[in-house]
Design goal:
alpha+beta; four-stranded mixed beta sheet; 4 strands
Amino acid sequence: MTVTHLPATAGVPRVGFAVPKGVGTAVARNRARRRLRALLDTPEAGLRSGAYLVRLGPAAADLDFAGLRAELYAAVHAAHAAGGPAASAHLGGATP
């Protein structure tokens, strides 16, 4: 899983998802998107203003909801820690 954050000075966070065919069938990809969206709608996600791109790899199809949450939140926090104009964080479990 890779999360890229492009910071902004104000506004609400915007999130885009890249879920390639390697993740599975259309049903599996849409399920992954819905799960990600649900996880990012919570305050625990810690989203800041700006734009986010979340890219899943094929291993994401094997993650349960709790595993996906742990990977996603760790990637978001790592992207924030990386700083810079377009900070990315790549984690191993659901990698492309």
